[in-house]
Amino acid sequence: MDTLPPDQTGWLAGTRDPAVGRALALMHERPAEPWTLERLGDEAAISRSTLHERFAHFIGQPPMHYLAQWRMQLASQWLRDTDAKVIEVALEVGYENEAAFSRAFKRMVGESPGAWRRARRVRTKGRPAVKA
Questions:
Q1: CB of 126 within 8 A of CB of 86?
Q2: Tens digit of pLDDT per residue, the chain (132 long)?
């Protein structure tokens, strides 16, 4: 990180910025937390408008959009790799109910959580295990 140019943007550069790095760490450590921009700003000791501006500069998108994508990435992994019920996955990634999670998942991923899971499981059936 120390070798990145000062004007570098992207996730790695964002972690170098104290406020953006703190916000990223919080979202990654506690994705199910009911984060708001104001709360993230408070935890990162910066105003919400400044956090929004710096986060968008370094990461290329607003903090809450990044959080939604991070939650869907985690949800996708759990749907693919576990037998957890959709409601369990929804709660793990910060949604209060299955319906809200399913709507958000379909909007961001393009299909319902159940359909997404079935499609990924069908594709992986019968494939040999990968040895480490």
A1: no
A2: 444 445 554 545 556 789 999 999 999 999 999 999 999 999 999 999 999 999 998 889 999 999 999 999 999 999 999 999 999 999 999 999 999 999 999 999 999 999 999 998 765 554 444 443
CATH class entry, domain 11-60: mainly alpha
CA distance 86 to 66: 22
- C-alpha–C-alpha distance, residues 35 and 98, integer Å: 18
Every domain range in the chain assigned CATH 1.10.10.60? 69-124
For residues 52 and 72, give the distance between their C-alpha atoms in angstroms, rounded to a whole number: 21
- Cα distance between residue 63 and residue 36, in whole Å: 9
Global pTM value: 0.81
Helix (H, G, I), strand (E, B) or coil at 94: coil
What is the CATH code of the structural domain delimited by 69-124? 1.10.10.60
Which of 43, 41, 42 minimizes the C-alpha distance to 55?
41
N-to-C CA span, the chain: 29
